[in-house]
Each structure stands twice: as structure tokens, then as C-alpha cells.
Task: structure prediction
Amino acid sequence: HRPLPDPLARRWLRALRLAVVLPVALFGVAATSDTDASGPKPLAHTVMTGDDGALYLGAKDTGQDWSVSRDGGRTWQESRKPSGAEPVFCAKAEPATCYRVVTGALAVQSDRGDARWADSWRISERDRDGLADVYGTHDLSSVSLSVLEVEGGHVVVVANRRDGFAVRDRLGVWKRIGFPGLPASVVPAELASLTPEPEEEPGSPAFPLAFLFSGLVLTAVPVWRLWRSGGGALWWWLIAPLAATGLLTVLIDHTAAAGVTVATALICPAVALTAARVTPSSVLGAFLLVMAAMATSTLVWLAGDTGQIGVLVVFMTVSALAVTPAVVKVI
Result:
């Protein structure tokens, strides 16, 4: 039989398991709750042209699965699922023009018979990312289109998943119309509000927060040791600078506070560990334990793609509490 690990090793392992597993479990609960709370989101999926000269739009989670226009895409009414309708990709009137969606983009290309496909309509990747932030999903791409010939030209309608539908009128002007049957305030989001002047991209809060929570653990444990050995409560004041920089990082500006946060998270533990006369090897072991826990929290947060600093704080708090018993044993 393999020898069982000693009680000290077992306690370390339990603490590490908690530090790794709990953030993952919390993320799962948060993700499930978010999905349940948000409810269904409308998705445009089909455009077809009927033999009767009507355009049909198919969407889900809008309250009406199908809409029809009998005036060349100017107005829309609720409809049954069409029969005898199908996508039409080309306008035959001279000059003959064909259209296609661009896979993985909010875009439509056209060709006038020379095999030189060019953009007829496109939402830039920057605006597409902005729409993803507004709608809370990256399900934004052109998936279906159909052409209808009308007097004086032709009309094109394209289905763009979460962004709804876009219509090209007979003069060649494109307009995003959202989902017929839904309030105009719901979709489409205004692109003008999604393209502010370029600004410097803020840094990730994960780096300063990882140091902050590591510093809290590596300060609190030796201070607790000092207090237990009769060193007095004065050492607990080392927590105050960490708490202050933590509030600055979380509530005000994590980018501007990053340098101060990291410096404080290094100085306070150094003072506490020196006062408690912790050996360098024990300091190294404790540091590696805490940083492993913080790295796990960060990876879980990044995988969730929420970008919310509050979620990251929760994950790191849980990891810090879970890994503290192991740090106590090492120090």
C-alpha cells in the first residue's frame, strides 16, 4: 500500500482544492443566473421572397415568428410561415446584380457579373464589438438575404442575427430596421453611440488585484502569528494601507492605482514577515501558494468574459479565504 500523506499535507491539499474549485463553481452559478435572468433574445435568421412579390422575414423570440412586406420593404406586418417562398440572390434587371452575405461578419457583398465581389453594406469590426457590448452577445453576423425586384430597381433584405434585419432600398441606401414587431427603442442600437473618439485602452484589473489579495493574505497571517505570540495588536495597522489601496483600485481607478497597489502589496507583507521572523523558504512557499490561487481566479474570470471587476473581486476573495489555512501551515 502507498503511504497516506501526513495530516499537514492533507490540509494543504484541501486548501488548494478549495482555492481552485470554488471560483469555478461560483462562476458557473453566476453564469447560470445571468442566463436565466436575461431571458430569450431576438434573433433574425431567414429572409425569403415569395412568388406574390412579398418579402418574408423569419425571426425567433420576437413575439411574431414571421413578418411580411408587400410594399418593397417599407412596412411590415405579422405573417404566417410562407409557403412557396425562397431566398433570391440576384436581380435580373440590367445591370444584373447578385448579392451574398459575408460569413462571420455584418456585411453584404454584391457582384455585377464580373466576379468582383465588393462590399455593398458592412458594419465595421469596431462597431460590431460595440454592438456585442450593448446586446450582451457576439451572435452578430449576416446569415440570410433575399432580393426583390421593384419598379425602378431592386430591394435587398439581410438577416443579421441579434442585430435584426437591414434593408437596401431601390436607390441603394441601406438601413438597419431591427425586428418588425419590437419597439424601436429595443433594436437596432445606434452606431453613432458606439464609435467614440479613440482612447487609451485601460489595463486589466487582474494584475493589481492579484497582488492586493496576495498582500492581504501574506500580511494578515504573520500579523496573526505576532498577535498570538504576544506581539500586540499594533501590527494589525499594516492591513490599513492595503484596505485603502483596495478601495482605490476597486471603486475609483484600477489603472491609475496599479503602481501604488503593487507597491503596498509588497511593502506591507515584507514588514509583517520580517517582524514575524519567517524564513525565506517559508516566504517563498507561501507566496507561490497565494499566487497560484489568484492565478486560478483570474483564469476563471477571463474565461467568463464578463469584464466586471466585481466578479473578479468575489473570485479572489473566495480564493484568498480558501488558501489562507495552507499559508498558516507554511508560515
About this structure: The two ends are 32 Å apart (CA to CA).
